[in-house]
Amino acid sequence: MYVDNQKTILVDADGVLLDWVYSFRGWMARHGYVIVEPNEYRMERVYGLERDEAKKLCRMFNESATIRKVPPLRDAVKYVRKLHEEHGYVFHCITSMNTNESAYKARKYNLDQLFGPTAFESLVSLPCGADKDDALLKYKDSGCWWIEDKPENVITGSNMGLNCIMIEHPFNRNREDAKSVSKSAKNWKEIYKYITEGYI
């Protein structure tokens, strides 16, 4: 696939485009689980579970019908559409959600419904929680924008010569290692200004 480095934006999905946490917490509440540490990133810590059990629940959720209707994160719809429709950017989404074919189709449906059928030129779905090193490798030294919320993936992107923006959440606000190699954004309005104007 041809990649126009000047007009391609690499994005994570959950916590960047989509409010996965909101949907997951609703699903978990319906199954009787109670939050114990709301500002943690790892779901085993959020719910006080064994790691294997938490991973199993995340996988079950990501294969459920709910994944077709995860709401957008903050103001993502407005500014992703503006970047695509008014400025000609296309998006390549790299998500560590699931490799199940039905889950992949559900995620694609969700993105197309929210952001339009032409915004996403590529969707790569990795195993739940997987690192993104290999998926980012083909963009190495391209200078593409890479928008992510997981600090480790931000650092990986920076090491590969990408222009990184880390969208802020309580779990990553104190990660100075990732902040030192990226720009931080509270919302997509700030991301839009970085990309179109070079500043907030």
How would you portray this structure in words?
This protein has helices at 20-30, 43-47, 51-62, 76-87, 101-115, 133-137, 151-159, 176-179, 188-197, and strands at 8-11, 90-95, 120-125, 145-148, 163-167, 183-185. The model has no long low-confidence stretch (mean pLDDT 95). Strand 5, helix 8 (176-179) and strand 6 (183-185) form a beta-alpha-beta unit. Helix 4 (76-87) runs parallel beside helix 9. The longest helix is centred in the middle third of the chain and has 15 residues, at 101-115. It is built from nine helices and six strands; from the N terminus they run E-H-H-H-H-E-H-E-H-E-H-E-H-E-H. The chain is globular and about 45 Å long. It is an alpha/beta fold and 200 residues long. It has two domains: 8-19 and 70-197, Rossmann fold; 21-68, no CATH class.
Give the secondary structure arrangement, pairings included:
Elements: E1 8-11, H1 20-30, H2 43-47, H3 51-62, H4 76-87, E2 90-95, H5 101-115, E3 120-125, H6 133-137, E4 145-148, H7 151-159, E5 163-167, H8 176-179, E6 183-185, H9 188-197
Helix pairs in contact: 4-9
